[in-house]
Amino acid sequence: MALVLASASTIRADMLRRAGMTVDIQPARIDEAAIRDAMLAEGAAPRDVADALAEGKARKISARVPGLVLGCDQVLSLKGQLHEKPATPEQARSQLAELRGQTHQLLSAAVLYEDGKPVWRHVGVARLTMRSFSDSYLDAYIARNWPGLSESVGAYKLEEEGVRLFAQVTGDYFTILGLPMLELLNHLALRGEIDG
């Protein structure tokens, strides 16, 4: 099946392609910071922020592209506070030092639009506990993995060396990568869009 992905995420596109889908990548340009900040000012939960960002992307592309459009977003919440992708190695170090020894949540939202209207949504949640790793390991980890860490809201990639930062992970692996894949595929199978 053909699906428009309203995201520039290569990981999401690769996951969809490996599942046998044809993916047309059309990144949506929305002001994520403004949406996030406005929602947080109103007391919105992290789950709602992730959902709104995913929907904003899907809605924008679906307004001009027919067919199925998938919008996705992921937020990291530590004790109710949201974290952003680090822009510098120093920001990555500060963020990882704060996450060290703590349990945080990754919330991965996916919203499917069809011909300008929402038809499905899901927010997957994973809980990840970081080890109490040393400062020397932290510095070496950032040096080895920057600038790739700037692509991740948590300043880590579980599918790479970032897995060594963790003591425990609870939740779906696809959700951690940024897309609740199993739920999406089940929905598409129920709709008859894919064999199943």
Structural overview:
- The chain contains seven helices and seven strands, in the order E-H-E-H-H-E-E-H-E-E-H-E-H-H.
- By secondary structure, the protein is α/β, with parallel strands linked by helices.
- The chain has one domain: Maf protein, CATH 3.90.950.10.
- Strands 1, 2, 3, 4, 5, 6 and 7 form a seven-stranded mixed beta sheet that branches.
- Strand 1, helix 1 and strand 2 form a beta-alpha-beta unit.
- Helix 2 packs antiparallel against helix 3 and helix 4 packs across helix 5.
Give a short summary of the structure:
This protein is an alpha/beta fold and 196 residues long.
Kindly name the structural category: alpha/beta
Q: Just give the CATH class.
A: Alpha Beta
- Give start-end ranges of low-pLDDT stretches: none
Main β-sheet description: 7 strands, mixed
Fill in the CATH topology.
Maf protein
Provide the β-strand percentage band.
25-35%
Order of SSEs, N→C? EHEHHEEHEEHEHH
What's the number of extended β-strand segments?
Answer: 7
Average per-residue pLDDT, rounded, comes to 96
Q: Would you identify the CATH architecture?
A: Alpha-Beta Complex
Helix content, binned percent? 25-40%
Radius of gyration: 17 Å
Number of domains: 1
Distance between the termini: 13 Å
Spatial shape: globular
Number of helical segments?
A: 7
